[in-house]
Amino acid sequence: MKNLARILSIIFHPSLIPTCLVLIFFENENFLALNFERKKILFLIIFLTTFLMPVFSLPFFYFTKNIKSLEMKSHKERFLPLLISSVFYLLGIFLLKIYLFEKILSDFLISAFIILIFSAFISLKWKISLHLSGMGSLFASIIILIHKFNFNLKLLLIVVFFMTFVIAWARLELKAHNILQIIYGFFFAFLFILFFFNF
């Protein structure tokens, strides 16, 4: 069961959430008109700045002994990697502005950037679940897309709802978090996204 939990934790890594959102956008009629070249640029911007760059910076922190393992089991180890990741997110926001992609895309990335900053500073004192923050962000983002932008994503919302429980089980099975860290991680991101897009 632990091997399954590890696989699920890798597949649903929180850094992949922005890339998942971009793929969801590509299926919407407002984005179908984008030519392949524009879609490729958009995908690369998000994938590189929110996943590849943050993840590939981890070995640097490991070899410089800022973290003891790539899993960053101690909450204090997470501060610097999360802070550096937020710089990559800023780069992504800047590139989206340069290439004049729809404002909603940069808004989602800005909200993710703010969550990342808060998570970094929270990690100085406590270890919240970044995996569940990712799922909370995704769940809230789909709700926003359905109700504010008329995306047809109700089936996907149900899938993400059930997958949230699966990921929560995986993190508990690996003893990476306790139940309070799981709950806090989810609702912190979930409520922030709803607040960000409504106010």
Folded structure, characterized:
The chain has one domain. With 199 residues, the protein is mainly alpha-helical. The model has no long low-confidence stretch (mean pLDDT 90). It has nine helices and no strands. 76% of the residues lie in helices and 0% in strands.
Helix content: over 70%
Radius of gyration based on Cα positions: 16 Å
Q: Tell me the number of helical segments per DSSP (H or I, 4 or more residues long).
A: 9
Q: What is the multimeric organization of the chains shown? A: single chain
Mean pLDDT comes to 90
SSE run: HHHHHHHHH
How many separate structural domains?
Answer: 1
Tell me what portion of residues adopts beta-strand conformation: under 5%
N-to-C span: 42 Å
SS content category: mainly alpha
Biggest sheet character: none
Task: Find the count of extended strands (DSSP E, 2+ residues).
Answer: 0
Low-confidence stretches: none
Features:
76% helix
Please provide a brief summary of the model.
It is built from nine helices and no strands. The chain has helices at residues 2-11, 17-26, 29-32, 36-63, 79-98, 103-122, 130-149, 154-173, 179-198.
Topology at a glance:
Layout: H1 2-11, H2 17-26, H3 29-32, H4 36-63, H5 79-98, H6 103-122, H7 130-149, H8 154-173, H9 179-198
Helix pairs in contact: 1-8, 2-4, 2-7, 4-5, 5-6, 6-7, 6-9, 7-8, 7-9
